[in-house]
Specification:
Elements: E1 2-11, E2 14-24, E3 29-33, H1 40-47, E4 55-60, E5 63-64, H2 70-76, E6 78-81, H3 93-100, H4 110-120, H5 122-126, H6 137-150, E7 155-159, H7 167-182, E8 186-190, H8 194-200, E9 203-208, E10 211-217, H9 218-223, H10 225-231
Parallel strand pairs: 3-8, 3-9, 6-7, 7-8
Antiparallel strand pairs: 1-2, 1-4, 4-5, 9-10
């Protein structure tokens, strides 16, 4: 579904991504593993059209999307659940979800999609009239995922979805990600909890200093001594 080759990204003179190449098959979970500052969020932002690459190719379902503005990337079917959630705090839960359905691809399906989101997250249904900024971090993360789903994505990118959440909520977030994949969603997962992300992932890539240095199935990387030492403290 997604193919990246030779991807370079710079912030001024500082190179953030260096000849990154990876593939994301349809209906699979692909994890991107790496230390803080390795370039994981930069990669997500570049795929999403927030950052413009200096070189390389990003092809989604065969179409080149590298350098397209983010609203066009979204309307092609690439959704992002950003680090820090980035919900609209002064809007209600329902209004946040409605914002997610403003894409041309999503408008006609807004009502059934909202019911699906409420089915996935009953707590959002209970609080649909509540201001989003008054909810807990876990509830806001559910809302961020729900808002992304409102845009009818075929590929969802999760950037640190468990950051700052209580353990019970973290388990629920990962359960939802697994459920979405089982229902046919394609997922890119960037997650600080390396062990859990590799257990979830069909395939994974290790990013160091902006370069892909290792790849394999999630199980293969979970058993790799180098990965275990570097990211699991084993």
């Amino acid at each position: 579904m997604l193919e990246i080759s030779g991807l370079d990204l710079y912030y001024g003179d500082a190179q953030a991504l260096d000849q990154v190449a990876l593939a994301v098959p349809a209906h699979e979970i692909v994890a991107i593993v790496g230390a803080n500052g390795a370039g994981k969020s930069s990669l997500i932002r570049t795929i999403a059209g927030i950052e413009r690459p200096r070189a390389g190719s990003i092809r989604f379902k065969g179409q080149e999307i590298g350098g397209l503005p983010s609203y066009k990337v979204c309307d092609l079917g690439v959704g992002q659940v950003a680090e820090g959630r980035q919900i609209f705090p002064t809007m209600t839960v329902a209004e946040n979800l409605e914002m997610g359905a403003l894409l041309p691809r999503a408008k006609s399906k807004a009502r059934p999609t909202m019911e699906r989101v409420y089915g996935l997250f009953p707590r959002l249904a209970e609080r649909r009239r509540q201001l989003a900024g008054t909810m807990s971090g876990g509830e806001q993360q559910m809302l961020a995922i729900g808002r992304c789903l409102m845009g009818q994505p075929e590929l969802m990118m999760f950037d640190e979805p468990s950051l700052g959440l209580a353990p019970a909520i973290v388990q629920e977030v990962f359960r939802i990600i697994r459920q979405l994949a089982e229902e046919g969603m394609t997922v890119i997962l960037v997650e600080q909890n390396v062990a859990v992300s590799l257990k979830l992932a069909n395939h994974a890539y290790v990013l160091e200093n902006g370069r892909i240095v290792m790849s394999g199935t999630g199980a293969e990387l979970l058993d790799d001594d180098q990965v275990r030492r570097a990211y699991l403290g084993l």
